[in-house]
Write a structure and sequence with these properties.
The protein is α/β, with parallel strands linked by helices. It is about 35% helix and about 20% strand. The protein is built from 8 helices and 9 strands. The structure holds adenine.
Amino acid sequence: MHIDIITCLPRLIESPFSDSILKRAQAKGIVTVNVVDLRQYATTKHKTTDDYAFGGGAGMVMMIEPIDNRINHLKSQRVYDEIIYTSPDGEKLTQSLANQLSLKQNLIILCGHYKGVDERVREHLITREISIGDYVLSGGELAAAVIADAVIRLIPGVLSDETSALSDSFQDHLIAPPVYTRPAEYNGWKVPDVLLSGHQANIEEWRHNQSLERTQKRRPDLLK
Ligand code: ADE
């Protein structure tokens, strides 16, 4: 998979890709993440990528020209499956959407900023708009990192244990069961006996029942 992330604040997005699973996924050659600094492609004298809103009102608007130039340049190098814009009014990111995106080859994620982008970007250049939740962030960079993380970890070979992503919360519309590690007893607080029994079938049954119980209690909406 190849992901281009277009942003006017590249430093905000670099660290999530420089550590742990996302770093290893790149080192293994499973994914390439390219952060595009929009300001470098600004066409104005002062290298600005935003301007005042027509009709007045507070907040700046990201201009169409540098975005269009960059997207066209990227499109001359690859065929993109989706050109995603991060926005609080987009389609909500779910595990199911992350699963769908993990099957794609080339993605662009455009990070919204200030008051957002000139509407013509959304009308003519973007294929999909994604929100990471009903709250407003200062910019789309953290949302882009969340989307990329949720997607990249699902690509086969990224997680060392292939079954690990399948047992994540939400994959079966269920929440993951509790997990424990050593010591088996701490402060008198014990790990459930069944997990120490070595009886794999019983362990699986216990985990499944715990998942069901937790989902009923915490997220009954998932069972509908
Ligand atoms: N930009 C600002 N808030 C956002 C959100 N909740 N999701 C995606 N992009 C955003």
